[in-house]
Design brief:
Alpha-Beta Plaits; alpha+beta; 2 helices; four-stranded antiparallel β-sheet; 38% helix
Length: 95
């Protein structure tokens, strides 16, 4: 089994309040969970209006499956027009 954990740091340029930012973050987290069946949370920058970090975790049966899921998640985030990606990082661990 392969455990993959990752973070996506995003910038939401039009967010003028924490409420707007959280609306975007919650929407992205919900869509990520529903589309990829992964665990997902708002991980950092809770008090900043335009910056957020999303933590993602999942378990796959092997490295090929983990790479496919990671690639799909990367494509999903890169295609999203609600925010700009500042940083995206994934690490895999064999368990």
């Amino acid at each position: 089994m392969v455990c993959t954990v990752g973070t996506v740091t995003i910038h939401i340029p039009y967010a003028g309040s924490l409420k707007e930012k959280r609306r975007v973050i919650k929407s992205v987290i919900s869509r990520t969970i529903n589309k990829f069946s992964v665990s997902c949370i708002e991980a950092d920058y809770h008090d900043l209006w335009q910056k957020g970090m999303i933590g993602i975790g999942f378990v796959a049966s092997d490295y090929n499956q983990a790479d496919k899921i990671e690639s799909s998640i990367r494509s999903f985030y890169e295609a999203n027009e609600d925010f700009e990606i500042i940083d995206m990082n994934f690490e895999k661990f064999s368990v």
